[in-house]
Amino acid sequence: MQSFLGDSLGGALTRPWVKCAVIAAAAALAAGGFAGCAMMKVDADVNDFIPPGSYLKDWFADADALFLKLGAGISVYSRDTAVHTAEGAALMLAASAAFKGDAYVSSKSVSSWIEDFNAHRNSSGAFTLIELHAWVSGDGASFRSDVVWKNETNDVPNEGVVSTRMRGNHIKSSDSAGKVDSMNSLRNSIKGRGLHSFTFQLNVSAFCG
């Protein structure tokens, strides 16, 4: 081994053409590595982290196979917002329009309490919390869980609203990178509208905020 490394290989490496060949091979290897890194995709399928035979693994597989048009569920939450004021109602309506208008969201899937409430009362301006409470307790009962009152035990409207929620679905995406892009897109659509809000995606493989 010493003779081979010292005399045969070592001697060969002292020749100029061998040095050039080694440098060329190293450069080609580095270029191939850089090209391969550039083509790598972000992918973290939740099924890779779930044990085989788990009901959750089967659930994700069935959801992906059977629900072909709609992607993960997504919600836009507002918090600490005076939704009943003219400004608050306008902000909620603007957020709802941005939610529906996002390129990665299926507009038909969006369930917006503010739009339905405005249609019910034929107005888009300010309203009283008693009006909102009466609506979610009656005709708007399907949105009851989308409005959280400060006095959650007794649902006392006069004490104000803690948070509200709008729900929808992303357009179907086949990889994690697409799901991350869809979440970032929605965040950018909602951001900067004066609403204290955040978005949440119901899919642990693409959760990012």
Molecular structure report:
The chain folds into two domains: 2-38; 49-202, no CATH class. The chain has seven helices and four strands, in the order αααβαααββαβ. The protein has helices spanning 2-13, 16-38, 55-66, 86-101, 113-121, 129-136, 176-190; strands at 70-79, 147-151, 156-171, 197-202. The protein starts with a helix and ends in a 7-residue tail after the last strand. The model is unreliable at 203-209 (pLDDT under 50).
What class do helices, strands and sheet pairing give?
alpha+beta
Structure summary, number of beta strands: 4
Mean pLDDT: 81
Distance between the termini: 58 Å
Question: How do the strands line up in the largest sheet?
Answer: 2-3-1-4
Order of helices and strands: HHHEHHHEEHE
Task: Describe the largest sheet.
Answer: 4 strands, antiparallel
Describe the protein's topology.
Layout: H1 2-13, H2 16-38, H3 55-66, E1 70-79, H4 86-101, H5 113-121, H6 129-136, E2 147-151, E3 156-171, H7 176-190, E4 197-202
Antiparallel strand pairs: 1-3, 1-4, 2-3
Brief characterization of the structure:
By secondary structure, the chain is an alpha+beta fold. The chain is built from seven helices and four strands; from the N terminus they run αααβαααββαβ. The termini are far apart.
